[in-house]
Hints:
Strand content: 15-25%
Low-confidence stretches: none
Amino acid sequence: MTAANPFPYSSDNKRYQTYSYYLKKRFGKKVYKVPLNIDMGCPNRDGSKGTGGCKFCSALKSGEFAGDPKDSILTQYQSVRERMEKKWQGGLCIPYFQAGSNTYTDTATIDKMLSTALSLPNAVGVSIATRADCLDEEKCALLGQYAKGTYLVCELGLQTVNDKTAKAMNRCHTYADFLKGYELLCKNGVNVCVHIINGLPGETHKDMINTARELAGLDIHMLKIHLLHILKGTGLAKMYEGGEFEAMDMLDYVQTVADQIELMPQSVVIGRVTGDGARDELIAPLWSLKKFSVMNEIDKELVRRKTYQGIRYDQITRKEEYI
């Protein structure tokens, strides 16, 4: 905490617990994630749950910044890490199985993925992204075994707790399905990170705050807050171009994120407060390309309010309406 910052879990001007802060406190130096793409697939694309994928998801299944799935895990890791080392020399690494649903396979394959990742140079943990409906007792028990010996995080794409919105976005699983997967992970001692999206078609400010309220009442390790990106070739792009909804504007987004941060317990790591859309694929909102400007505006909004992460968390326990 700095002299001008009332939030205790920060070493700079951030009034929320950043992932960078958490990792440096835990490991004693800079740690960064190395995104990987092993083209695991998704039940929402192959017909087992649905086809076409979620309407906001790109053809690369959110793997735009990961390695080439044609390459081995080691080759991808070396390639991506070489680029990232130009910015963070000598940092420790967390291999991140980012693209697709990375538990949408058998347990033996997951075991091999994780053991390979943890054998990579400078790796001090591992993150694995998936859907909650791609988890079961056996898979979560395996993840739990790894979590006993390393810093393992399972990242779940929830996006919203509103089942009506989820159905419209072709997510093909419910909030109740999410909770089943989440509870299995918790039972096995696995750190859970949850991804949410602000600006989904039809969602009001109250809907977005309700998603944050629900998650604040759970025992999650980390929250990643994303802005809805409208990308070329997606179902969402067709809806947007057909005039079915408008992209969120920057002021609304900044205020919504600040509201969500205020509700989150201080123990929760805020993994991100906005997201990257590939410049060549992004249709809207174009203001999101200035990522650091968005982050700065969120910081400024918290300062303007004289507030910080968790200041309204007590409203969760009192079940008060957020105002």
